[in-house]
Design a protein that fits this description.
The chain has helices spanning 7-13, 64-71, 94-101, 111-114, 121-131, 137-150, 167-179, 197-214, 225-231, 249-254, 259-266, 317-335, 340-347, 357-364, 372-386, 390-401, 404-407, 434-440; strands at residues 3-4, 16-27, 38-49, 53-57, 79-84, 87-88, 104-107, 185-189, 217-222, 234-239, 242-248, 412-414, 421-423. It is an alpha/beta fold. The chain folds into two domains: 1-232, P-loop containing nucleotide triphosphate hydrolases (Rossmann fold, 3-Layer(aba) Sandwich); 310-402, no CATH class. The chain is elongated and about 85 Å long. The strands form two sheets. Strands 1-12-13-11-10-4-9-8-7 form a nine-stranded mixed β-sheet, with helices on both faces. The protein binds adenosine-5'-triphosphate. Residues 27, 38, 40, 58, 60-66, 223, 290 line the site of adenosine-5'-triphosphate (ATP). Adenosine-5'-triphosphate binds at residues 27, 38, 40, 58, 60-66, 223, 290.
């Protein structure tokens, strides 16, 4: 089952506390020359349902923290809406913003750097109550003492300093502070990543108990997929500022729909002895720069299930893989910062490392039989590079070997009855689905 859907469809089905629509958060480049902004979050739409834990996973730098910070207004949205219980929070300012802030809080990854070492534990937890002028001094102190107990610390810890506590205890202090204003929504940014495994389990249990007792809604940011699987009701998988797939955890882990989710899950060490090494997918290269994301699908430059143009549909998987590697190398070369001395050499007409393209081509296609039709196009690209323009060479390869994955932005498709969504051209009826593709092709370790 696969059907194109809109963000509004999903909203109608759910009891949403947080509704995110077309959200973008860009960081403008500083400096005199400006430059392209970092597109940390680049047009995402999803809901977080009341009382649920939504996991947010993806490789480092894909925009998870920026998205979490934008939802609690620690970062300003560049475009789009975030509505919280029906109120658009992106436009709040002044006292309205201050008042709203008590609803949504954040727990940070590293309790060492997020707690002010010069304040006592009591002061740290009390600070939000002071800022919001909640109750009398005495009531505030009493509230802090309750909070210490709620998170499993003791009242006498009030006058101690953060450095007197272990990592797990410091994270409890961070949680108590986040709960001080009785929020409904908490963004947990890798709350256990900095802790030992045995302590992790205790903090996760505490977070689950607090959710049950206080009716909290969580956005749980993590890179450790096994943690997410157990604690989250639904999971959103993020790549280069986009949500590639979102849906119920069990379903998404058991039967991933999106090629990126496939790749991410296959990278987890598996305890299942029936899983073959060849079933593992190793992603080529690194994610593109969020300053200059690819046209078309965000995952196109690394996708093992990328749609091929019809003309090359039947070439060997190996040859196709090498073409993609070769294109990736050319893109990486364009991205690499050229050193001043290299630039100087270039200006003086001297040889630089940018003149060894033939060698790269020879090495890439070394042990595969390249069909004549493909070779002609590779030769043409090499010729363009020799004439002095690697960007023309890249463009030639893109025009020749590119498909809709390189040219058109995909839309989300509903891929299960539970409303799971996936961002991929392969969900269109004219294409083989990602699952069928992975079944029929060898995309294992190389
Ligand atoms: N204040 C900032 N100014 C400019 N760029 C930023 C800023 N904060 C983050 N970025 C960039 O935005 C992109 C997304 O970063 P973000 O921290 O949101 O990703 P992440 O998925 O949380 O990564 P990690 O797991 O490493 O924390 C990255 O390219 C990062 O370098």
């Amino acid at each position: 089952m696969s059907q194109e859907i809109t963000a509004t469809d999903e909203r109608q089905r759910s009891d949403a506390l947080v509704e995110v629509d077309g959200l973008k958060t860009y960081y403008e480049s500083g400096g005199v020359f400006g430059g392209d902004p970092v597109k940390a979050v680049d047009d995402v739409s999803f809901d977080i349902r009341r009382g649920e834990t939504l996991g947010l996973v993806g490789e480092s730098g894909c925009g998870k923290t920026t998205l979490g910070r934008t939802l609690v207004r620690l970062e300003s949205a560049t475009a789009g809406d975030v509505s919280y219980d029906g109120t658009d929070i992106t436009t709040l300012s002044g006292s309205d913003l201050k008042e709203w802030r008590s609803n949504a809080q954040m727990v940070f990854q590293d309790p060492d750097s997020s707690l002010n070492d010069r304040m006592t534990v009591g002061e740290i937890i009390r600070e939000p109550l002071d800022v919001h002028a909640r109750g009398t001094r005495r009531e505030r102190r009493q509230r802090v003492q309750e909070l210490l107990e709620t998170v499993g610390l003791q009242q006498q810890h009030y006058y101690r300093y953060p450095h007197q506590f272990s990592g797990g205890q410091r994270q409890r202090i961070g949680i108590a502070r986040a709960l001080a204003l009785e929020p409904d929504f908490v963004v947990l940014d890798e709350p256990v990543s900095a802790l030992d495994a045995s302590v992790q389990a205790k903090i996760l249990n505490l977070l689950e108990d607090l959710q049950d007792d206080l009716g909290l809604t969580y956005l749980f940011i993590a890179h450790d997929l096994s943690v997410v699987r157990h604690i989250c009701d639904r999971v959103a998988v993020m790549y280069l500022g986009n949500i590639m797939e979102i849906g119920p955890s069990e379903e998404l882990f058991a039967d991933p729909a999106n090629p990126y989710t496939h790749s991410l899950l296959s990278a987890i060490p598996d305890t299942d002895p029936t899983t073959q090494m060849e079933d593992r997918i190793t992603l080529r290269g690194t994610p593109p720069s969020p300053r200059n994301p690819p046209d078309g699908c965000p995952f196109t430059t690394r996708c093992p299930a990328k749609i091929r143009p019809e003309k090359y549909a039947d070439i060997d998987d190996d040859v196709w893989e090498r073409i993609e590697v070769f294109r990736e190398v050319l893109r990486e070369r364009a991205r690499a910062d050229r050193s001043l001395s290299e630039r100087a050499k270039e200006i003086l007409g001297m040889e630089t490392r940018f003149s060894d393209l033939d060698e790269v081509e020879a090495e890439t296609f070394d042990d595969v039989d390249v069909p004549a039709g493909v070779q002609t196009e590779l030769d043409r690209a090499a010729e363009l590079a020799h004439e002095g323009s690697e960007s023309d060479a890249r463009e030639h390869l893109r025009e020749t070997f590119g498909s809709e994955c390189d040219l058109e932005a995909p839309t989300h498709h509903e891929v299960s009855e539970a409303g799971r969504r996936s961002l991929c051209h392969r969900h269109k009826s004219e294409h083989e689905s990602p699952a069928a593709f992975f079944e029929g092709h060898s995309v294992g370790d190389r």
